[in-house]
Amino acid sequence: MLNLLNPYRFGEGGGGPAFPVVESITPTSFPVAGQTHNVLMPPVVNAGELLLNFMTSHYTSATSTTQGTMNTPLGWTQVAQFETSVSSDFVTGVACFAREADGAEDGSSVNFSTSGSSPNATAAAQCYRVTGWTGVLSDIEAGGAAASASSSPNPLNFSPSWGSARALWIPVAGHVQSDASVSSYPSNYVNGINTVAGAASSSAAIATARRELEAASENVGAFSLSTAQIWVSFAVAILAAA
User: Fold this and answer.
1) pLDDT by residue (tens digit) across 153-186?
2) Three-state SS at 9
3) Which of 8, 64, 82, 217 has the fewest CB atoms in 10 Å of its CB?
4) CA dist 185 → 123, 145, 154, 170, 211 (Å)
5) Span 74-130, pLDDT tens digits
């Protein structure tokens, strides 16, 4: 688990947070392909906090994006799910799920299962614990999805529906490991973390970073991988509490 402190945690005058705050990130890896993916929750969770699970699944037998999907557990909301297929490999999907915590999640696990005609997948997940958000799940938006096979996962420009406002921006890159590492994260984004299922060519991996920004839109920029890989990338914006 990573506990990453935010130097801009409090607004002027010592009031509440000026931007949403990432209190911790809990990674989980699933190197063996299967349908059950019990993602670890943070060891400390308080009622009203936001839990965000970012997850990549690499379907080791699916040859069409219709053959595998990540399911939304009870009590969670799917923010986004995107998939890509390249003829030389199998399907890779990346998703984000959100939940307002009830405070009983501490140290537990949640099954983000996969299903479809070819559901077996390796997977990698990161569960963010966030404070300073509005408490409204619809104030978490995703966009700018792109997919390719290269060394530069790069979300497209993304404009949340609320216009110019304070928000925490999180770019996401789901990729296939195959011994690739993340060489760099998008410019102006900090606290990058790459979670991998394993070193095999069929292993899923997910990379995220974050930025506090008041803007109506954002062109995040590219991640850089050490070698070319299949990838799916998008951005998530979390509106700050008033």
Assistant:
1) 999 999 999 999 999 999 999 998 766 789 999 9
2) coil
3) 8
4) 21, 17, 10, 11, 11
5) 999 999 999 887 655 567 899 999 999 999 999 999 999 999 888 888 999 999 999
- Domain assignment present for residue 6? The answer is no
Residues 163, 227: Cα–Cα separation, whole Å: 36
pTM (whole model) above 0.85: yes
Domains held by the chain: number: 1
Cα–Cα–Cα angle for 31, 36, 40, rounded to 5 degrees: 75
Nearest to 130 by CA among 198, 51, 34, 183: 51
Distance CA 142, CA 126 (A): 16
Tokens of 102: 């009830």
State how far the Cα of 231 lies from the Cα of 85, in Å rounded to an integer.
9
Q: Are 119 and 93 in contact (CB under 8 A)?
A: no
Distance, in Å, from the CA atom of 35 to the CA atom of 119, rounded to the nearest integer, reads: 6
Structural domain includes residue 233: yes
Place of tokens 């559901």: 119
Contact criterion met (CB below 8 Å) for 92 and 174: yes
> How confident is the model at residue 10, as a pLDDT?
40
CB contact at 8 A, 21 and 205: no
Q: In the structure encoding, which two tokens stand for residue 161, read together?
A: 């529906």
Give the residue numbers spanning the domain of 196: 12-239
Cα(181)–Cα(195) distance, integer angstroms: 10
The C-alpha atoms of residue 1 and residue 140 are separated, in whole angstroms, by: 23
Q: Running DSSP on this structure, what letter comes out for residue 15?
A: -
In a domain, 5, yes or no: no
Taking Cα atoms as reference points, which of 171, 162, 161 lies closest to residue 211? 171
* Contact residues for 13 (Cβ-Cβ < 8 A; gap 6+): none
